[in-house]
Amino acid sequence: MKLIRYDGGRIGVTDGVRVADVTRHCGVGEDWPPVAMNRLIRNFETLRPVLEAALGEGDTVPFDRVFLETPVPWPNKLLAFPVNYHDHAAEMATTGLADVQGFFLKANSSLSGASEPIVLPDLPGRSVHHECELGVIIGKAGRQIPVETALDHVFGYACLIDVTVRGREERVMRKSYDTFTPVGPWIVTADEVGDPSALEMRLWVGDELRQHANTRDLIVSLPEMIAVASSAATLQPGDVIATGTPAGVGPIADGDVVRIEIERVGSMSVRVEQGALGRNPVFAKPYEFKRAVVAGGRA
Ligand code: MN
Q: How far is the centre of ligand 1, averaged over its atoms, from the C-alpha of 130 (Å)?
């Protein structure tokens, strides 16, 4: 099943062509804080028959007419794993791999949707990069979850772009600008994806293919990420995990369109526009990103 959040917080079921509005089944309206999708995820097994029937009955609207917002705007946590592909470690010339670093957090408020632009901050002398990542949405709460049963805690998957200001300052701040975590176009439930350990993923900027990888090359596998994250923090329904980027990160600029596509998950194209906000003393000093030369690699 594919679930979307759209047009001002409505919840929909879609087949990619049509959308059925199931907001009324989700227990809450879109008041503040916007947690309707968290509740739907927690109560999914109860709601499932109604949601599955929704496209077959009643009115639908065309998928390409709706404004896609981020599926879970108010997760308890937005976790992210750094340097989780060896080729990205090589291009960054770092030995701080995900297996010895663990996770970091991005501000939940950095989440945005497929119809929303990535708004570049006004930071002269800084480049802002795309990172192509598989997004994981947690379905079942848990602490100290064993690797063996970790995938039972996954509700679904989405395309996720981890947008980043390059520099040496605190990673959390460099990755927490508003609109720096587009997620979408929908959440596809785990049963439709099956085994997540060999998914092709690609990211283009305009016509240029910048990133192409497969989740089989993850350093820390998805079950291991869930085990490690939940050893420290109780995972909650709706939590989002950014699983790490492969090589090929690069700058985005005003007017670009970033397209991300993940096998059996979906694809989305996100516009980039220059914003007026974002300056601060922390990023006042210019920083030049230099990709390390990788033997045999794309760099
Ligand atoms: Mn990342």
A: 9
pTM here is 0.96
Over residues 217-272, the pLDDT tens digits come to 999 999 999 999 999 999 999 999 999 999 999 999 999 999 999 999 999 999 99
What digits encode the pLDDT tens for the residues 30-79? 678 999 999 999 999 999 999 999 999 889 999 999 999 999 999 999 99
Backbone angles phi, psi at 293, to 5 degrees: -75, 125
Amino acid at 70: T
Cα 70 to middle of ligand 1, angstroms: 18
Q: Ligand 1 (ion): which residues have CB within 5 A?
A: 131, 162, 245
CB atoms under 10 Å from CB of 295, counted, come to: 6
Residue 23 C-alpha to ligand 1 middle, in angstroms? Answer: 32
CB 90 within 8 A of CB 247: yes
How many CB atoms are closer than 10 A to CB 34?
A: 18
Q: Where are the domains of the chain?
A: 2-66, 78-289
Q: Separation of 245 CA from ligand 1 center, angstroms?
A: 5
* Ligand 1 midpoint to CA 87 (Å): 13
CATH superfamily of 78-289: Fumarylacetoacetase-like, C-terminal domain (3.90.850.10)
